[in-house]
Write a structure and sequence with these properties.
By secondary structure, this protein is of the alpha+beta class. The protein has helices at 14-24, 55-73, and strands at residues 3-10, 34-42, 45-52, 80-85. A hairpin with a 2-residue loop joins strand 2 (34-42) and strand 3.
Length: 95
Amino acid sequence: MATVIMQKWDGITPDQYDALRETVGWDRDVPAGMRFHVASFGDGVLRMTDVWDSEELFGTFVQTRILPGLSQLGIPGMPDMITQAAHEVTAVDGT
């Protein structure tokens, strides 16, 4: 069953997020199990919502790619996170 990961990260800047995305490359080399990712900024807070095939695949991605990327860039901390089983996932292609 799909898993929804909702994250809130106080203090990370858009420039730091963009540097992490460039370093980790999840948009170019999509990790196994990642189905959806959206990020937004407001009031100095990064909010992200992801849909993954499983919480375990997300955890593997964090351990093998996100944490090394954060370390390489010297970005401190981690987001607050909530994970839940998805009740429904609907993909609409309106592009």
